[in-house]
Amino acid sequence: MRVAITGATGMVGRALTTSLLADGHTVVALVRRPPRRSETPGLEEAEWRPEQGRVDAVALDGTEAVVHLAGAPFGPGLWTRRRRALIRRSRVNGTRGLCRALDSMDRPPTRLLSASGTHFYGETGDTVATEDSPPGKGFLAGVCRDWEEATFPAEEAGMSVAHLRTGMVLAREGGMLRSLLPLYRMYLGGRMGSGSQYLTWISLVDQIGAIRFLLERPDMTGPVNMCAPEPISNAAFTRALAKALGRPAVLPFPSTAIRVALGDFTEESAFVDLRARPERLERAGYSFVLPDIDSALSDILPRPCPSVGA
Question: Which of 61, 70, 217, 307 is the most exposed place for a label (fewest CB within 10 A)?
């Protein structure tokens, strides 16, 4: 296949590019600067300007699918009005601009996989969210809803569009896990608050596997939950990570301290009680490589860190 990717320099984008190239596919990285000649076989670049609704149609000619991953990272900290505007604009306006550009092509790609998030469901509590569940409340839920609606021009162009509602991606290369590892290695790991809130997660291995699965299934349109079949409480996640690292994690992070340190990110992410299941992926026959937290952490962190003095 010939696949175009936005956000190709991000954690998921890099892993997807590597996976596709390894199997002989051609990857066109969409960049917001003049394209450069790549020395990597099978890797090309094409310019796109989402704020202007422009894309290099010549470079994309013959491309069968687009995987749209670009967006400003959420990240911990104080979400000021400017920060919230950037989070929304980079996703909603960027997606709308890309889809309008694709719509203007004489021969647009036939498949679009557009990133979204399980934050679409807001806080679910004891209820398990599937793709048929309604949208939740909160800033991120609203962003995800508008983000998905921004693909309408691509649908109007006849493209087969799927929304990748992704949970927390676990990988050594980045994301929340990378931020937690130094704390655990210094014996400072612990559950967040009560630890009863559920986390919806997926390993990077299965995130890439599921994306590639969907590239081969243009009949799967609409929302697809990109998460492992076993959501886990924050307390259980803490125990599993401590075990994988060979470190104790008995002291909880006080809720007040976390709110001061992480700002609005806390309420929208760290303390959100969200359980989602990949109902459509499972029904379609996708087989998870790392379906539970122990197998995922064992794959990411093969060996426990030795104890001090060992």
Answer: 307
260 Cβ contact partners less than 8 Å away, ≥ 6 residues apart? none
| Count of the separate structural domains present in the chain | 1
Q: Which range marks the domain in which residue 209 is found?
A: 2-170+202-226
Q: Given this model, what pLDDT does residue 305 score?
A: 45
Contacts of 141 (CB under 8 A, 6+ apart): 119, 120, 121, 122, 135
CATH code, domain carrying 154: 3.40.50.720
Q: What is the C-alpha separation between 90 and 114, in angstroms, rounded? A: 13
pLDDT, one tens digit per residue, over 130-158 is: 999 999 998 999 999 999 999 999 999 89
Decide: helix, strand or coil at residue 162.
strand
Q: Are 28 and 45 in contact (CB under 8 A)?
A: yes
pTM: 0.91
Q: Which two tokens stand for residue 41?
A: 């076989």
> Among 122, 241, 222, 138, which Cα is nearest to 181's?
241
User: What number of other Cβ atoms are within 10 A of residue 143's Cβ?
Assistant: 24
Q: Name, of 63-77, 90-104, 212-226, 292-306, the range with top average pLDDT.
A: 212-226
For 115-233, where are the alpha helices, taking DSSP H only? 139-149, 152-156, 175-185, 204-215
Q: How many CA atoms lie within 13 A of 240 on its CB side?
A: 19
Both structure tokens of 134:
């309604």
Distance, C-alpha 30 to centroid of its chain: 18
The residue count for the chain: 310
Confirm whether 50 is domain-assigned.
yes
Instruction: Report the candidate in 71, 110, 76 with the shortest Cα–Cα distance to residue 92.
Output: 71
| Residue whose tokens read 């210094």 | 186
Give the pLDDT score at 184. Answer: 76
**230-244 pLDDT tens trace:** 889 988 988 898 888
